Amino acid sequence: MRSLEVPPIALDRVWPLVAPWIARALEKGCSEHSLAFVRWHLWHNDMRLFLAWDDKAKKALGCYILEFAEGERGKCCHIFLASGVNFKTWRHLIEDIKTYARAQGCARLEAGGRFGWERLLARDGWTKLKVILEMRLDDA
Q1: How many domains does the chain have?
Q2: Does residue 22 sit within a domain?
Q3: Residue 37 belongs to domain with CATH number
Q4: What is the pTM of this model?
Q5: Beta strands in 70-111 (DSSP E)
């Protein structure tokens, strides 16, 4: 199992595979972003798409998207989303993400998402830094 970066030029080829995973992650994570937003930013290289590639099965089991930001505490690699099947078989790819982030000059790695991720990633050294709360003011 390895991480396989998808350059923007290859996005159209892999989009039918990853779009359902990305859409599911956006929906489950109550994201404000649309699938079209993500695709646009991947195409313009503002975000980077990686496949969790299983060499034995010759197929992707999931994907993750990274984005980068400069800040007072150093450059940050933000894991925008991760989605797919059998995450437990590719969770070790965090090491690939750390290596990639360091190569991009990042001092920090961040991730956010639904509550289940906190439990799932705690054993890998992730700690809760902050919480985002929301109050709806409409009838939705």
Answers
A1: 1
A2: yes
A3: 3.40.630.30
A4: 0.89
A5: 76-84, 108-111
